[in-house]
Structure of Laccase:
Amino acid sequence: MELIKKKKILLLELLGFLILNVLTFCMAAKHIATVDWIVKETSYTRLCSTKKILTVNGLFPGPPMYMRRGDRLNINVRNKGKYNVTIHWHGVKQLRNPWSDGPNYVTQCPIKPGANFTYEIVLSNEEGTLWWHAHSDWSRATVHGALIVLPQLGKSYPFAKPHKEFPIVLASWFKGDVMEIIETALESGAEPNKSDAFTINGQPGDLYNCSKQGTFKLVVDYGKTYLLRIINSIMNEEMRLRALATKDYPVDVPQHVDTRMYITISVNTLPCDDNSCDGPNGSRVSASLNNISFVEPSIDVLQAYYKRIKHVYESDFPNEPPYYFNFTGDNLPDTLLTPDQGTKAKVLDYNSTVEIVFQGTNVQNAAENHPMHLHGYSFYLVGYGFGNFNKKTDRKKFNLVDPPEVNTIGVPTNGWAAIRFRADNPGVWFMHCHLERHSSWGMDTVLIVKNGRTRLSSMLPPPRQLNPC
């Protein structure tokens, strides 16, 4: 009897253990939902004509995403369009998980027509108004949408809770096929056609031909507060504000710097045989960072780095330009027009502190505001100004107390912007101008942050399914 009693107790303990594990598995699985997205062509009528555009689930703008701080979500993207595609989660750090970051030939091979890929979105301390968009050629023009990260359950906004919220997505509309526009421009060497209209939540403004009157209306009640969540797909320049600097939203700007980089931003040209291209003086329009025009590799940099595949990229992106001159001067000499070309990356030690000063230039008299975006990170905007950066006087004016933490910053026309961050997210991360034509011309580079000494400070292994290039 005593033996039978002991066996029953053992069975009950085993059953309890199994039930506990099943419940734990179910609870874990419950928090990682999977959503299916279909990328396909859909007919839309704008500016008096109808055309097919690439969409997610037939929507333009695409489906809005609502998540909470710290959430995880899997999105299975199936490509039923006719072009390669990838998706980027703009402003999501994707801690240790560059495999789901999105830029084609940087962190993944594109999703080819008929194929699929499952992105794992891992939120950490992100909160607020972000967005998602295609990161393959110019498909971002129609494949984009809002990504709203709400506070954790039980937490509130860092301000009085609004009565209502309105997502506002600003974008562009091209009458032609956007992919054909950029492909033709890259083939000929000329500047691509500009958009035919700006849109608000997918509709051109009231003054465009055949536009709907009252494109955007807000119905509000007197005395109540409203939160306008503005997603700017046109260029996504961040406002320059001071940080909240509170207990729940602390500021940890690096006071000491391990690596300093001074990066010039230029629009250039490349020579063509017999001046046969359609750019300035028969050349091909190009762009560069530190006089290096980024060349898209044949396989993604992340895969080459992880598998140690040689001859895909070089890890010698320079900390400063090859020569100094009056970067913002007028009528600069033609000798400054031609950049070098290459697939170059900057390698950083894990947990090192980094300062980057972006310096706008007036090469080719093409100075403008450049929205510079860094994947995998938010950074502190510690200073900005006009003219050439002066390391002796301008650095003394840096805000190292409560600078804003952003993921994109508009470098002023003929000016500079300085950022600082801690390289605590191992992986391969794209850094580029967010104006599509500039990125297409080579105004890009890659930061590679090495693993730390522990598993939790090292990059995650690749997912089971990696799309072939």
